[in-house]
Amino acid sequence: LVNVSAVFIFPIVGVFFIYRYRSLQTQVAQGVTTKNSGIDESLLVNFKGQGSKDQIMLSLSNFRYGKAQDNYVELVYVENEELKKFLLRTSLSKLSDSLSNSVIVRCHRSYLVNLLQVHAVTGGSSEIKLHVKAVDAPIPVSKSYREATLQNLHKIKNFT
């Protein structure tokens, strides 16, 4: 009887830990909620390119992310419940240097993200992805920008 119970205890404990891991993983994925950070989402942000007419002004509530494409940056934003794109002639590093706030941060060598629009963070110790409202594909976070991105995210968001 002791031998039989010793054989069955290992699969039962293994199944318990698998379900506990999956439960914690879904809690983390769904657990990002907005904290009262005092940031007004209706503030306008001016994105300027190299040309005199190469600029767009977007509110923080509409801007989602920017993606580098050689010497251009593709800005993705929401207008009338629909995702729109605007192409700026500038590099991502120049654009991120011109923005002086902790809400829109660089999280990857090719991505700039609005942390107010992040609704979930997934991944493990090696790779993190940010899930942005109204955007299907997650935004990757590289190792070099990981610490700063998470610190800024913790300033304006609260994990439950």
Global Rg: 20 Å
Strand portion: 35-45%
Spatial separation of the terminal alpha carbons: 44 Å
Query: How many helices?
Result: 3
Physical arrangement of strands within the biggest beta sheet: 6-5-4-8-7
Shape, principal axes of CA atoms: elongated
| Mean pLDDT reading | 87
What proportion of the residues is helical, as a percent range?
25-40%
Q: Could you give the count of β-strands?
A: 12
Sheet of most strands: 5 strands, antiparallel
**Poorly predicted regions:** none
Structural class: alpha+beta
User: Could you spell the SSE succession in H and E letters?
Assistant: HEEEEEEHEEEEEHE
Secondary structure elements and their pairing?
Layout: H1 2-30, E1 32-34, E2 44-48, E3 55-59, E4 63-69, E5 72-79, E6 82-88, H2 92-98, E7 104-108, E8 111-114, E9 118-123, E10 128-132, E11 139-141, H3 143-156, E12 157-159
Antiparallel strand pairs: 1-12, 2-3, 4-5, 4-8, 5-6, 7-8, 9-10, 10-11
Please explain how this structure is put together:
The chain is an alpha+beta fold and 160 residues long. It has 3 helices and 12 strands, in the order H-E-E-E-E-E-E-H-E-E-E-E-E-H-E. A 5-stranded antiparallel sheet has the order 6-5-4-8-7. The protein has a 3-stranded antiparallel sheet with strand order 9-10-11. Strands 1-12 form a two-stranded antiparallel ribbon. The termini are far apart.
